[in-house]
Amino acid sequence: MTQSSSAANMVPEDHLEFLHVVWGRRPLFTYIFLGVNIAIFVLMALAGGSTNEPTLMAFGVKSNPQIARGEWWRFITPIFIHIGMLHLFFNSYALWIVGPQVEKLYGAARFVILYVLTGVAGVYASYFYHPYSESAGASGAIFGLFGVLLVFGVRYRNSIPPFFKRAVGTGVLPVIVINLIIGFTIPAIDNSAHIGGLLAGAALAALVPFQKPGAETPGIFKTVQMVLLATIVVSFYSVAKNYDGPNLSVRNLRGSFTQIFTTGSSRQDFVDAINTAQNTFEASASELESRRMDHIASLKADSAKSIDRLRKIPSLAPNVDELMSALLRVMRDQYELIQDVERADTVTFAHGRRLRENVRAFEKIMEQLSNWAETDGRRFGIQMRHGR
Predict the structure, then answer these.
(1) What is the DSSP letter of 316?
(2) Is residue 194 annotated as part of the catalytic site, yes or no?
(3) Labelling 78: which of 15, 35, 243, 270 has CA 20 to 30 A away?
(4) Of 126, 135, 139, 256, which one is the catalytic site residue?
């Protein structure tokens, strides 16, 4: 007798059929939801990064005041939003591991129902227990899937292959407990969302039967699946319709991905670049007006650095982008003026005339920026200081 035939005799035929049929199902929606998470993250990177507060708010994180104002979609959209690359990576890895197990057991329609409803339950738990903080992430839905596997293993312990029980039921308890402990020890983690999703997943798994081998999906599950998918689409349509966040631009990608290693934000980069330009211009103008040449070399170096920072400034909105382009032109004119003064080793009458033109242009731009900060800038958390 061969080794393969011995293994076949050891595993009952109905168990082999269970594994063949169930594990032959494709976890299509697991990969779709992974793709949506990544796509949203990239869009947020184009808008200044997923750690940038105005970007997060505009894309639909859980925010109790906004929900109270009628933005109901914030119960849905946070499931697909992640705050930082590590947050996206860990949740994507967890979904990659546990998602296919649940979808293969329950089928596509029931998986969508389980994932979305447990995700909403996690958001609602955060809404109820943490009303003063914003939150986002797929972890509530992922804990919901763990809750599904836990109850599935207990509910069907007598009808699934014995060796399969190690991956479900009490086999997932250590993973659940360890992650809950981590959540309780790290203040930044919203464990209420985890617990809400976990309990919702357990409750749904007690009510929703898994898709047995060869069984057709009942029409009610397909209908609910379509309704939930349509709700997701409508939710993100509402986000797009009401979007008031930073401008989506390739210019923002560099700053967005450097946030992986720093705690900065596109808003802070914007403010720092303008403050640096203002300080540099005012210092150079004061030096040239007094006709002193003591610090001309350092002023030229500072102006070059300021110009470099303005080139890399994140894009927030089309109107302010135009102002930034104008400011960059003025700073370049001032740099060229400093170069000419350095070569001449004196401030001539022509230099003084160019300086006055630059000062007028600079003051006009700063006034426009100040007006913008008083109106549109407030939604980005930006305020302008008054200069000379």
Answers:
(1) -
(2) yes
(3) 270
(4) 139
Q: For this structure, is 386 an active site residue?
A: no
Where do the DSSP E strands lie in 282-365?
A: none
Provide CB contacts within 8 A for 328, sequence distance 6+: 307, 310, 311
Q: Is the pTM of this model over 0.90?
A: no
The number of residues making up the chain comes to 388
Rounded Cα distance, 317 and 315, in Å = 6
User: For tokens 């390739």, what's the residue?
Assistant: 250
Active-site residue identified among 82, 92, 194, 265: 194
Domain coordinates in residue numbering, the chain: 10-251, 265-380
Percent share of the chain, pLDDT over 90? 39
Nearest Cα to Cα of residue 105 among 149, 61, 62: 149
Q: Considering just the CA atoms, what is the radius of gyration of the chain in Å?
A: 29
Which fold is adopted by the domain 10-251?
Rhomboid-like fold (1.20.1540)
Asked whether 116 and 228 are in contact (CB, 8 A), the reply is yes
The answer on pLDDT for 113 being more than 80 is: yes
pLDDT value for 1: 39
Q: Which two tokens stand for residue 215?
A: 């069984």
- How many beta carbons lie within 10 A of that of residue 4, not counting itself? 8
